[in-house]
């Protein structure tokens, strides 16, 4: 019998109006029940956040920094329990789960070091004018299932630091670790400052349409992001949308092939490809294409996939049945088009979990679905290119614009190229390096606004200018 998981509303543990099952994607077994919030329970959470807001907003920035530090301490003290729960519901290997939970603690500490300085606009004999940043109010934070804990913390940490109160909603596919984190954090937060609610498909739309939520910070798919934007218009909610990506990786002919192959492999396949900024289209210069392709296929055969709770497992399953079906459909489209697989391509339908083997497609046409669509699973197209102008044009030929990476022996040249790429982050000779201090933004249909860094913190504030006539 699994433990009971509670929502956190007004500082109290609250049961849902109903419950729903949560499944371990490595074996399809039910691992627990999550609370299914009713509309009234969401209203109650919003009311408690609203009531807690004036007190939290009036708490000094320094005091809020201290509390963010205590949050980090609580997360670290419970890393083992949270990591196990995360692996059981999300599927990622323990080491990755530990990285995620530990990284979340670091995120609170890093964010606590950010500042919200006032800008003096005028200081003359006639007038004093200053612009300061004030909190927005009640923030609804909506998180996806690929990195449930850390992506929630990307929202909660700056929202709280800036003086807002929060309603956090994890994905129904991965609610348990977030619920548990919410329970644990109540001991260091005043009641109502951080509320955690879980529920089915209605809960997100109820939040984005809620008249008493002032901002939605959403991470998820572009399709859902559009719906959030539409329903948020009713009360002109502030919005931060971190959406999908189809990130190009560009591999130049001057790389050290042997060194770069493992790096490229993990750039694409870490978390079984379920990373918004995974390398999802890999453009390899024709001079080294064969060597890199052979190296990647060989490396793939050495990597172990399985239940993330088992020692030695490096890749877990796809997280849920819906995503499993999407990835299978994409693989089928490649088969239907007679594309060549360097490795993978066939799913063991008898396996209990949602396992998709590492699948690498050999130089498909640019307009094939495996190139134009975000797989969000372990399926990667390798594409040949011959000159830089051509590869930049092909890399930019997407409605998405989240990230990109360039792999080269000449980083200065790559830095020049980076300015030509239409996306929010360009990594050179690394990928997925994110910190609480650097802006992370989606261009084009990969999002609106910024997370992290000073720019990300400002998204949880309104500007307020005050003038004094002298
Ligand atoms: P999703 O859009 O299906 O769900 C995201 C969250 O939104 C979940 O909590 C879900 O319950 C909720 N939701 C669903 N419908 C809603 C609605 N109408 N209104 C409000 N909320 C609603 O996304 P997902 O499948 O959980 O995540 C995968 C997607 O997220 C991928 O496209 C990936 O690229 C993207 N992603 C982006 C980033 C980023 O930072 N840009 C990070 C991680 C994932």
Q: Would you tell me the structural class of the helices and strands?
A: alpha/beta
Q: Largest beta sheet, briefly? A: 7 strands, mixed
Mean pLDDT: 98
Number of helices: 15
| % residues in beta strands | 15-25%
Rg for CA atoms: 23 Å
Spatial shape: globular
Helical fraction equals 25-40%
Count all strands and give the number. Answer: 24
Strand order of the largest sheet: 14-15-16-13-12-18-19
Poorly predicted regions are: none
Q: What ions, cofactors and ligands are bound?
A: nicotinamide-adenine-dinucleotide
Span between termini: 70 Å
Describe this structure in words.
This protein has 15 helices and 24 strands. By secondary structure, it is an alpha/beta fold. The strands form 7 sheets. It has a 7-stranded mixed sheet, sandwiched between helices. Strand 10, helix 8 and strand 11 form a beta-alpha-beta unit. The chain starts with 6 loop residues before the first strand and ends with a strand. It binds nicotinamide-adenine-dinucleotide. The site of nicotinamide-adenine-dinucleotide has 28 residues, from helix 7 and helix 8.
